[in-house]
Amino acid sequence: MPVTLRVPIPDGDPEVVTIDGARIVLGRGQGCDIRLPDASVSQRHASIRAESSGYVVVDEGSTNGTYVGGIRVPAHTGRLLRSGDRIVLGCFVIEVRLGAAPMTSDMANVTRDIAFRLVEHALRQSGHELVTRLRIVEGPGFGAELALTQLRRVYRIGRGELSDLVLSDPDASREHFEVVCVERGVFVRDCGSHNGTWLGSQRLVPMEETPWRVTLAVRAAKTVLACEEPIAMALAELETLPDRVMDPPTAAVASTPLPNVVRPLREQTPASRLPPVKATRPSRGMRRAWGAVDIVVLGIGFLVLAASMAGLVWVFRSG
């Protein structure tokens, strides 16, 4: 039986991932099946495993713990999941659905897309520029750069005057290599250069596109270029950060609607934490509203008083 996870995305529709496998790893690290890029999530936070009794969630010794229904799952211990459960991992709340559903075909790209959408939202909220740039970091023309402002446009780098980034390296070919920027990354392709194009320690196959990882540099003859892709660089930086300790969630957090839960839990104020409302007694000087019975009693009192006064007057006159 497959398991479906709904991962909330701020200001957008949640990502839905359906897997029919023995184990799904959730965490901040690059090797996780579901990558949640926030320091409140541990590198390897939790896993969902298929057992004979059904799917269970196991905390992998995370800093902030794994919660289901406001109850913390003991480290390295499994808790049986039911359809509709919400798993709290750091500042994320993920909904679980069990049952028949179409399988996610390209899990690697979906995992990358989730992480990119979350980081892109955070960068935009903080006002960061999201333009990818190529920069010469070693060799002739040190410091020169090229902004890849147009998606899917092919940018040519070489010694030729018509290149988008002209190399002053005499050993570079006139058309040395090309790059293209897409929604979720950059690809590099050697143009059949004389000295070849190297990505890290790997020589590229001519005319074959290869993903350019921001942790690797491209070397063309004596020129070395780095790719500065803001989202990918932020993801790489998140790998190095220590876990951020958070306050434990409550059952109220686990039942929060999914579009509103991607925020620090300490900013939320669950109803269970609000101070109880105390009943107040009216002060002595406070007036009470008159009721119908009060008016009748008051009227009878006035009649009795009037009759008494009339009797006194009659007695004095007769005397």
Give your account of this protein's structure.
The structure is a single chain. The protein is of the alpha+beta class. It is built from four helices and 22 strands. The strands form four sheets. Strands 2-1-11-10-7-8 form a six-stranded antiparallel beta sheet. The chain has a six-stranded antiparallel beta sheet with strand order 13-12-22-21-18-19. Strands 4-3-5-6-9 form a five-stranded mixed beta sheet. The protein is elongated. 28% of the residues are buried. The model is unreliable at 257-289 (pLDDT under 50).
Helix and strand succession?
Answer: EEEEEEEEEEEHEEEEEEEEEEEHHH
- Spatial sequence of strands, sheet with the most strands: 2-1-11-10-7-8
User: Alpha-carbon distance between the termini?
Assistant: 110 Å
Note the total helix count.
4
Radius of gyration: 35 Å
Mean of residue pLDDT values: 81
In total, how many beta strands? 22
Shape: elongated
* Low-confidence region ranges: 257-289
- Percent helix, as a range, is 10-25%
Q: What is the beta-strand fraction? A: 25-35%
How does the major sheet shape up? Answer: 6 strands, antiparallel
| Main structural class | alpha+beta
